[in-house]
């Protein structure tokens, strides 16, 4: 049963990669809240959560195709250093954003700098990874009008961070 859209879903989670390294987790006992139906988390993960009971735990394993996609060699490009703004700080391992023709922000990482040649990787950092999520479903409630207007969950207690 998929989640109904426009619910505020609160979960505890730990995300690990194939090597069992923890990539991300809810810390300090604060749940992570998201609005359902807004692609704020991986759609396949949202589907899994939709089948859970509040208070239950589940281990969800997502293959690359169900998560951030396979690693694509053609997403790696080489450009000249002169294509960057003159004052840009260019370092290997740094993440940057560029604007797509549609005006969306496209993240990429600089993986290699060889003199004037700069290698860019447009793959998602987790592309090609099988991801394991340990999830505990804390709560599901209808979103308030304010949350819908703002497009994100405000969490418990009504504190506002921007």
Which keywords apply here?
162 residues, mainly beta, Thrombin, subunit H, five-stranded antiparallel sheet, 9 strands, elongated
Descriptive notes:
With 162 residues, this protein is mostly beta strands. The chain folds into two domains: 93 residues, Roll (Chitinase A, domain 3), CATH 3.10.50.40; 49 residues, Thrombin, subunit H, CATH 2.40.10.330. The protein contains two helices and nine strands; from the N terminus they run βββαββββββα. Strands 1, 2, 3, 4 and 9 form a five-stranded antiparallel beta sheet that branches. A four-stranded antiparallel beta sheet has the order 5-8-7-6, with no helix packed on it. The C terminus is likely disordered.
* Ends apart, CA distance between termini: 33 Å
Largest sheet: 5 strands, antiparallel
Q: pLDDT under 50 segments (min length 5)?
A: 158-162
Count of separate structural domains: 2
Shape designation: elongated
Strand content: 35-45%
Individual helix count? 2
| Helix-strand topology string | EEEHEEEEEEH
What is the strand tally?
9
CATH architecture descriptor of the largest domain: Roll
Specify Rg, calculated over alpha carbons.
Answer: 19 Å
- Backbone structural class: mainly beta
Classified by CATH, the class of the largest domain is: Alpha Beta
According to CATH, what is the topology of the largest domain? Answer: Chitinase A, domain 3
Helix content: under 10%
Kindly report the average pLDDT value: 91
């Amino acid at each position: 049963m998929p989640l109904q859209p426009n619910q505020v879903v609160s979960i505890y989670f730990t995300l690990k990669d194939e090597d069992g390294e923890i990539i991300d987790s809810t810390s300090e006992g604060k749940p992570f809240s998201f609005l359902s139906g807004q692609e704020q988390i991986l759609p396949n993960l949202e589907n899994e959560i939709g089948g859970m009971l509040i208070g239950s735990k589940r281990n969800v394993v997502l293959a690359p195709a169900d998560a951030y996609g396979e690693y694509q060699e053609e997403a790696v490009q080489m450009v000249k250093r002169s294509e960057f703004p003159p004052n840009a700080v260019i370092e290997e391992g740094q993440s940057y954003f560029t604007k797509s023709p549609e005006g969306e922000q496209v993240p990429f990482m600089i993986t290699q700098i060889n003199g004037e040649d700069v290698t860019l990787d447009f793959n998602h950092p987790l592309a090609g990874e099988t991801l394991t999520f340990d999830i505990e479903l804390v709560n599901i409630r209808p979103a308030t009008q304010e949350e819908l207007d703002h497009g994100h969950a405000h969490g418990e207690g009504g504190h506002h961070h921007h």
